[in-house]
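hi! just following up on the protien thing from before. the input was this:
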Amino acid sequence: MLTSFDSIKGQEKAKHLLDTAIRNDRISHAYLFKGPAGVGKKMTAHALAALLNCHAPQGMTVCASCPACKKFNSGNHPDFHLIEPEGAGIKIGQIRELQKNLAFPPFEAKTRVILIPDIHDTMGRPEVANALLKTLEEPPADTMLILTGDEAGHILPTILSRCQVIPFTPLPLEDVAALLTHEDRQRAMTLAAIAEGSPGRARRQEEHGFLDTRQAIIEILTSTDKNSPSLVSQVYAMAHQSAELKDDAEELLDLLTSWIRDLIILRSDAPRSTHLINQDLANLPEAAESWSTSAMMKCLDAIATARQQLKRNCNRTLVFEVLFFALLDEKW
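and the predicted 3d structure came back as:
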């Protein structure tokens, strides 16, 4: 699909840096778009590739009607290559195949563009990083490499030194909320806050119904009847449902962390209106009375432990069972 810089929300600094480079004919052979996940790095890479090869651009806007734009719009431009991770990351075979292809000139583009996303996931494989480094050191003519990386991820200094870094930042929460389809504005703002200004992350949470799952878990955790016959079965059912989220299970832990954090704030003397994340929950003040501050700090430790266990590929269902019972134990 054809992407234009006009459609990219926020990221004014990144767009300004790229605009200046294009206007001054100082385009780098390699860029690293570095910033949080889901804030538009890949979209910007697509927009830059389309702009560089548009036959009749107007400033930073593509014409959308030339042959190159039509090919970008259909996803069939022969000189735009996306190196998708295979499994946990980029494989050495993919980089070697790329190097073979780069030995030949572009088919028709003024600038062939290679997009390699989430490069931080590849840094744990030295052979892949070294092969990529060689490509960055000896870039072929008429070719641009665009890497994207999470600001929290580790990227080798040798790769950083061979790329021009373009910084990407979280969007204002109002802007993220406006991009969501949720009719309830408070819930949209909650999603934006939990996603830390990342539209991509907020959309994923919206599509997967994370707020509804959060609500169901909170209803169990705030249950006032310790001896309810159905409580244990509810915990087991919710643990199974949480485990079904698979790779998105950590997002659920982020939701629980933000909720506990809000409860701690409500029990403190900190200003509340500008700090609370889960403002769509009407029962926050009542829930804050269910745990002591020290108990809630232990709840945060329990969530952190669950996060580490998920990273070690422990049984997800068991991890959530232990977590939910631990949170209930701290309450009682």
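The chain has a mean pLDDT of 87.
Residues 5-167 form a domain with the Rossmann fold fold (CATH 3.40.50.300).
cheers
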